[in-house]
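ok trying again, last paste got cut off:
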Amino acid sequence: MSRVLEAIAAHAVNRPGAIALSTPDQAFTWSALQAEVERTAETLERLATGKRPDSPVVVRLDNGPAWVIIDLALIRLGWPSLPIPGFFTDDQTSHAIADAGADLLIAPGADGLLLEVGGARLRIQPLVSAPVALPPGVAKVTYTSGSTGRPKGVCLSQDQMEAVSASLVEVIGADYAGRHLPLLPLAVLLENVAGLYATLIAGGRYHVLPPEDLGLANPFRPDLARLAAVIAGEKASSLILVPELLRALVMVMSFAGARFPDLRLVAVGGARVSPQLLTQAEGLGLPVFEGYGLSECASVVALNTPAAARAGSVGRPLPHLTVRLSEDGEIIVGPRPFLGYAGGRDHRGEVHTGDIGAIDPDGFLSISGRRGNLIINAFGRNIAPEWVESELLGQPEIRQVLVFGEAQAELGAIIVPLTPDMDEAVIGRAVDRANANLPEYARIGRWRIRQPFDAAAGELTGNGRPRRANLLARHRDFIEATEQD
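nice, full thing came through this time. structure:
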């Protein structure tokens, strides 16, 4: 039996009346949650006649109790799940369904085979797709909108995911399991594993709202006033954020005076975080802890914690993992973090992450950048663009940035200002301040202002990281002009 289901059963015996899952209008005690999961699993098994037992079930739902209960019911049935984030395009969704050989869809609806779950009406729809070989023991196939529009399906066992969740509870402490408010989609592995599963194992309360109620109907352009009001009003004690959301909270705290007195733990990951942003957040009273991970390691590899944190690092590796560096500094994670890719060979042994880092004498891991993103300038110096970008993003006037300069004498940058009407001279002073923190070979010599990066145009990944190849292609004229000067 899974650790999550075992934890729910134990909490249902020891604390049957305590609230496990809630919204502003609903509350499920531990015993009620266990009963709803069992009922949903039985109903799914009865309705899904003809389903291939090893083929994934597509879950395309917004955050809410129904998502949680469906996910837990699929664990109980031993059926693999394929969560689809709301920001996926139709083409990405179709690719994921075919690539993983999914044969059943659960989505909102009012016709066909219907299922009532957590107060929501859902439809169950058979899918026509050819069977695909998946690794034995797969419980979840997760797709991230990474560097291409057709991402790989990472196959994970329930034990691999729950090992991460249990390790997080171990290193953070179950006493931090208060009221967790998910801001990221549950279909994103980080929130699913580090948010939902860890909260349930620790015995906390998972308080979930749909994205529009949070001010996140468009996650790339959040309604900051609404988001801040909900975090404070719902008395969230823990959050998981990507850097752009952390930046948004810092902005609303700095300029609108918002405060979150109930927050005890804010974990941030998904991309490199500016040290200046972390310092700003801490200065405003946010208990921020940076971490690092990837889908092939079931979301989290290392995390700073209240008991063990070091500035400039992403924390110590989780206790169930081994982390070492190759001769050229690539981070390698073992012993076996994932099963393989959908339709590919089974994966055995360690994962070569493609990230470059270092481990200090006390075991804290730091990340300098992606191996494939490394810039070698005209003087032969190796520069991780993420390092320079983090200095630029530490300036409050700069919202988004992309640094380039392969084989060039100086680095260039594509910059999105905090507000569209910001004067170029203000941006220039921000660049100068960032340059003052960088060695001469890594300073920005030329830059261009543009409108915000557009996820719909393929310029951002699902968690807000720039798609470098797409953005560089769109600004080829500026890059080539820099080369000719």
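cool. The two ends are 64 Å apart (CA to CA). The mean pLDDT is 93.
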